[in-house]
Write a structure and sequence with these properties.
Layout: E1 11-16, E2 19-23, E3 28-32, E4 41-44, E5 47-51, E6 56-58, E7 66-77, E8 81-87, E9 92-98, E10 101-112, E11 115-117
Antiparallel strand pairs: 1-2, 1-5, 3-10, 4-7, 5-6, 7-10, 8-9, 10-11
């Protein structure tokens, strides 16, 4: 006996700041710092794939007419990472810390042409 899986929620795979993100509507994500004010909206046009829950549209390289609208919630910093370099037997040591500048965004809508998933 086979059962068909329930249709999953719509999602899009977008490229921003040199990385690819799997985005779903009404969820928040941390991306590299975006130069936008808190409360403003940002539009991403570099959409690689859009899935509406039943069928997927794959771009070559981008889906034409696809758009993802993000709302900037806050600017924050990631967790502290410790970078420690040491040369054995040379008494050379260097300790450095790093915190990545991030922007927390909420996905407001994913649109392809006139069809919107939100």
């Amino acid at each position: 006996m086979t059962s068909t899986p329930a249709p999953s929620e719509a999602y899009a795979i977008v490229e921003t700041s040199g990385q690819q993100f799997w985005l779903q509507p009404r969820r928040y994500y941390d991306v590299d710092r975006i130069s936008a004010e808190v409360g403003s909206t940002v539009s991403l046009d570099s959409v690689l794939l859009v899935n509406d829950g039943s069928s997927a549209t794959l771009g070559q390289p981008f889906v034409s007419g696809a758009n993802v609208v993000l709302k900037v919630l806050e600017h924050r910093r990631g967790p502290k990472l410790i970078v420690y370099k040491m040369r054995p037997k040379k008494k050379t040591r260097r300790k450095n810390g790093h915190r990545q500048e991030l922007t927390r965004v909420m996905v407001e809508s994913i649109t392809v042409g006139s069809k919107s998933f939100s």
